[in-house]
Amino acid sequence: MLSVKHITKRYGTQSVLRGIALDVAQGEFISLLGPSGCGKTTLLRILCGIETPDSGSIHLRGQDITALEASQRRFGVVFQSYALFPNLSVAANVAYGLQGMKRAQQHSRALEMLDLVGLADQAHKYPSQLSGGQQQRVALARALAPQPPLLLLDEPLSALDAQVRVSLRGEIRRLQKQLGITTLMVTHDQDEALSMSDRVVVMHKGQIEQTGTPQQLYSRPASEFVAGFVGKMNLMPALVVGRNRARVGTQDLHCDIEAFKTGSPLLLGLRPEAIGLRPFVVDAEPGPSASLNSLRAEVLETVFLGPCTLLRLHCEALGGLIIEAELPSSDDATLPVWLQGQVLMELPAMSIRGLAQPLSTLRAA
Ligand SMILES: Nc1ncnc2c1ncn2[C@@H]1O[C@H](COP(=O)(O)OP(=O)(O)OP(=O)(O)O)[C@@H](O)[C@H]1O
Question: Where is each ABC transporter domain found (predicted)?
């Protein structure tokens, strides 16, 4: 439905976007996720038509729209600041973009949209009489009223307090699915991106680092940056020593690294919640098996986080690395006594991923 081809943008000597390419299907909800300054807002502004790229093109349903003005593109846009007209009623704000329609039609369409966002009874009020969350719902109704081909959301929830933000996430997603409107949202909040999107585009230094479903990004991050930005991950420098086997410190680990060549250095990634812990029994320490790597470790610290407890573990065999594990809290939220001193740390082979360049991309290069 939307195709972005090799967009580049410089401001002076700074290269802000470097060869962005992205295809979006009809009805998809895509998040552009990345840290401050990675270029996501610039990309959204280029899509809106309020900024021009230095090179590359944008195609909507096969038509090249790169040279079209923002007003000709007719995209719905919602900004972080609600940008409502303070001197117009809520209904008049929503009707604002419906200039081509007759007045009565404008009004009934505005009421219909306000009904969709649950604000039909607030139509007569002025923006200053509404809460932040309500104002953002009005902005959403206004953006959707002219039935735009594409909805662009620029950090739409970041000005709201935490509770409103979470409930509006669900509301925006429900509405987007109901209307089947193709949507791109800029955010720096990973929870927001993971919970709302069909696919997430992770951006870093003006480039796309990885594109995938929330589940793909979480379970198979392609790089150290994605692993660190989307959730938490233990990172272990390693050397591939055989098929699905890598050495960390003095320890060989079974892991899920099919695509890596023997002899190549790589970074292994392991989520804290994938790690199992058992009591350590002297002389009963099992060695690594093909499915589970069992290693002795010392508990350095435990931090209670509510739904889980974070443990920092020192593992001599892994070259003295500090590994973080997360244990789900029990009913009474107390930790077993054996979680002091020495424990047996179990690292499931299938959860240990390779994060450096896989063999296939090296071959392609
Ligand atoms: N009009 C401009 N003139 C010069 N530099 C700009 C301009 N707009 C953006 N930049 C620079 O381009 C880089 C990317 O900015 P952009 O706003 O796209 O990042 P972002 O990922 O959206 O960050 P944030 O989340 O902080 O908004 C930044 O270093 C910014 O300072």
Answer: 2-230
Question: Dihedral through CA 9, CA 13, CA 15, CA 19, nearest 10?
Answer: 60
Same domain membership, residue 89 and residue 177? yes
9 C-alpha to ligand 1 centroid (Å): 11
CATH code where residue 206 lies? 3.40.50.300
Position 126, amino acid: Y
| CA pair distance 277, 351, nearest whole angstrom | 15
Ligand 1 atom closest to the CA of 155, numbered from 1: 25
Q: Ligand 1: which residue has its CA nearest to atom 7?
A: 11
Are residues 327 and 193 part of one domain? Answer: no
> Helix 132-144 vs helix 162-179: angle between axes, to the nearest 10 degrees?
20
Q: Which residue numbers in the chain have pLDDT < 70? A: 82, 283-288, 290, 356-365
Q: What is the phi/psi pair of residue 174, to 5°?
A: -60, -45
d(CA 88, CA 65): 32
Q: How far is the CA of 37 from the centre of ligand 1 (A)?
A: 5
CA angle 141, 147, 153 (to 5 degrees): 55
Print the SS3 string covering 120-157.
Answer: HHHCCCCHHHCCHHHHHHHHHHHHHCCCCCEEEEECCC
| CA of 83 relative to ligand 1 center, distance in Å | 20
Atom number of ligand 1 nearest to Cα 186:
22
- pLDDT for the residue numbered 253: 95
User: Could you report the per-residue pLDDT of 309-363, keeping only the tens digit for each?
Assistant: 999 999 999 999 999 999 998 888 788 888 888 999 999 999 999 986 554 444 4
Q: What is the pTM of this model?
A: 0.86
Beta strand 199-204 with 207-212 is antiparallel
Query: Domain range spanning residue 329?
Result: 232-364
For the chain, what is the domain count?
Answer: 2
